[in-house]
Amino acid sequence: MTYLLARVENFSRFDGENLSADPVMGYGRSGKVPHEIHNFSVASDGFIYGYLPKEGGGDLSRLGGYRGDAEVSNVTVIFISSGVLCGYYRNATVFSHPIRHPDKLEAGSSPIYCRVKVQPENAFLIPAGNRHDELQPRPSGQFPVLYGNEDSAWVGWFEGLVAGIQKTFRSEKKRRKWTNSVERSSKARAMALHKYGLRCECCKITHADNVRASIFEVHHKVPYAENFETRQLKISDLAVLCANCHRMIHRMPDISDVNALIAYLK
User: Where is the HNH nuclease domain positioned along the sequence (predicted)?
Assistant: First the structure.
């Protein structure tokens, strides 16, 4: 297996939002919008497309390919910011020449060209609050992109670290599936509306009639850390949100924190 290590700016979600911290890359500090801003956004064709700084990563002969190849597959792409792991792709396809993002996305007024393509289920983003693991040993120099293989010291560090992270991601996928089943439950909706009424907890919109009240949905706000497989559903686990606020909170770093969305909307 072959690897690419890329230095990027520190976005919480990499789906078009503003930077969550001061810029660490030269282009970010210059005021330019970083082109990796959508590196974990799902495109209209169902794939995720990733930008690599300085158009790096194009030497496919160092990724198991041959001269003249247009692309290679089965590459692991690792993203770090200030030396700390942000996320990674598994089984990614790397192009010899960057391609225009299929949705014609732009960074500021500049078109985004992407080096990497990956299935969403193979893209793993570390939650912003859990980004504490610093690359070891940290390569010297101000590299934009590095090539690696199983013999690279930083690859060994990465594989040892993500063995534990993968267990967390598998648990999180199960938790999200359980959460979705709760939110689609007519029983849970009836419980929440009876307790909290026809009023969005975030934007405070309210309706008295049942026709317009159809915009209200049940949000399941159990924290990620909960042992959901043994937890009994409680009314305090539920919130009533309008459809717009419900969509927004599911794009927040912590879907259990209704107050964070309220603060975001102010």
Answer: 187-247
Measuring CA to CA, how many Å separate 89 from each of 110, 131, 196? Answer: 24, 16, 41
- Cβ contact 200:206 at 8 Å: yes
Task: Determine contact, residues 104/111, Cβ cutoff 8 Å.
Answer: yes
Which amino acid is located at 250 in the chain?
H
Q: Give the per-residue SS3 of 156-174.
A: HHHHHHHHHHHHHHHHHHH
Residue 177 located in a structural domain? no
Token pair 């305090």: residue: 236
Which residue is associated with the tokens 């660490």? 24
* pLDDT tens string 139-198: 877 788 999 999 999 999 998 888 766 555 555 565 566 666 666 777 788 888 889 999
Query: Are residues 64 and 74 in contact, defined by beta-carbon separation less than 8 angstroms?
Result: yes
Show the domain range for 134.
2-170
How far apart, in whole angstroms, are the C-alpha atoms of residue 149 and residue 97? 21
Q: What angle do CA 134, 225, 216 make, to 5 degrees?
A: 120
SS3 211: coil
The verdict on 64 and 190 lying in the same domain is no
Does position 65 have pLDDT exceeding 90, yes or no?
yes
Q: Which two tokens stand for residue 45?
A: 């064709």
